[in-house]
């Protein structure tokens, strides 16, 4: 059962209505996470702005989705796992095996693997990485701009993971459960 209310876009007003209209125009729907986050127009706008800014960064959309899966798995966020698996399969056209590998921080591409490993390290160390952690990602050929964006992707996904885990947002994508909840 959900713990926070998903607003009906038809009944929204003010800034929330404007944001929902923008999401609807871009995605063709307003997913439950955004409907629930819309209880605070400031929180929804912050999420949309950071997400939008990162979509124009150095890291590809595919890498962003793989990061979202790795981070969501680390935080056991079934809503985000479902959403990003769907996006990865349907929009990014990534092979399901690649998406599953990302959840555990793996990739056949060495640079992507280093990015995913660094993201998982950031989470496990609560952001308190050391010189060895940073040197490892740099030695894998990841630029400082890409490292900065990796940290930003972690922040964005921790926001959505924590929000959805708090709200117990109703999943409106094909359900995917975290590996930890399957054991």
From TrEMBL:
Database matches in InterPro entries: AhpD-like, AhpD_core, CMD-like
Xref: Gene3D superfamilies: AhpD-like
A GO molecular-function descriptor: peroxiredoxin activity
Pfam families: CMD
UniProt domain Carboxymuconolactone decarboxylase-like: residue ranges: 41-89
The protein's name: Carboxymuconolactone decarboxylase family protein
Lineage start: Bacteria, Pseudomonadati, Bacteroidota, Flavobacteriia, Flavobacteriales
């Amino acid at each position: 059962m959900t713990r926070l209310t998903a607003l009906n876009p038809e009944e929204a007003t003010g800034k929330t209505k404007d944001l929902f209209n923008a999401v609807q125009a871009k995605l063709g729907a307003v997913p439950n996470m955004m409907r629930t986050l819309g209880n605070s127009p400031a929180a929804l706008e912050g999420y949309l702005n950071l997400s939008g800014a990162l979509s124009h960064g150095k890291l590809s959309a595919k890498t962003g989705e793989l990061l979202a899966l790795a981070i969501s798995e680390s935080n056991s966020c079934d809503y985000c796992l479902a959403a990003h698996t769907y996006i990865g399969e349907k929009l990014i056209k990534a092979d399901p095996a690649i998406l599953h590998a990302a959840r555990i921080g793996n990739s056949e591409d060495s640079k992507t693997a280093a990015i995913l490993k660094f993201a998982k390290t950031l989470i496990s160390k609560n952001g308190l990485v050391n010189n060895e952690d940073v040197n490892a990602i740099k030695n894998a050929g990841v630029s400082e701009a890409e490292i900065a964006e990796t940290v930003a992707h972690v922040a964005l996904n921790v926001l959505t993971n924590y929000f959805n885990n708090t709200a117990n947002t109703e999943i409106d994508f094909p359900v995917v459960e975290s590996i930890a909840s399957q054991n």
